[in-house]
Amino acid sequence: MAPGCSPVPELATGTSARELAFPALRRGQLGTLQVNLGYRCNQSCSHCHVNAGPSRTEMMDAATIALVPTVLQARNLSTLDLTGGAPELHPGFRALVSEARQLGTTVIDRCNLTVLSEPGQEDLARFLANQGVTVVASLPCYSAANVDQQRGDGVFARSIEGLRQLNALGYGIEGSGLDVDLVYNPQGPTLPPPQAELEADYRRELNTHFNLHFNRLYTITNMPIQRFAAVLRQQGRLENYMDLLRSSHNPSNLEQVMCRSTISVDWEGYLYDCDFNQMLGLPMTGLAAGDANPRRHLRELLEHDPADVPIAVADHCFGCTAGAGSSCGGALS
Q1: 121: nearest Cα among 87, 150, 148, 167
Q2: pTM, rounded to two decimals
């Protein structure tokens, strides 16, 4: 096993960690709309909190997609973050990207790299480059054995080929203006290693063995929900992992957690404080203080500013504040 991808040892914890409740939070100024276009994916990863896969059929309809650029303008949002599943497999993906870019919005594509070699997607990498899309690419290790164990046989080789396609178009190359950032998540119920150190390992290994380049590495903690939680529960390790997250809670991360500046939109257009709450069915509590309507829709952002709204929190939120912290943009501290 490559040393930089080895898991961090689990911390010894006591039962007192289980008594810790996650602190109350309120949203700040909204800057990012994170839109889940659907759960269809060409991979079925063991850590996936969305339970995405090739057999999933949930997909955002055209009317809801059409609302997205209007909301970006109405709320003057700087960033559209597209996720899934594999968001690129949605037939409306390219039109949405093009319209958002015409508005001057930064577009992030959460890409699994292997989708770039899927049938019918041969020109996808060039489309992303032509649109100036920021690619955030999931590559959970620089070791073939580790990646294939988590994502399936042959996934590492296809991921390397996808990154090679992006590099050839200028992604990750200094001065190109095209950013490709990589995402690491641990193999199991452990905290990620220090982000800066692991980024240096990735640069060395990918450059030495494959002559590949990227801009930044993000380390993301595995969330104890959905498929990953089910696996841990089956192994009898879920409570120990929750103890680890609680005992590693770092209050200084609370100011930077992604839910304070991001809203997550599910494939039906309903709003959540984050992608993880979306998967757990914990909707936003309202778009104004004291408004307790349990289901809010994207269209409501056309009229309501979500600033200062209470954020729905639960025990899984410790995954974002444990240790160096975790967000869609990597470590927080």
Answers
A1: 87
A2: 0.90
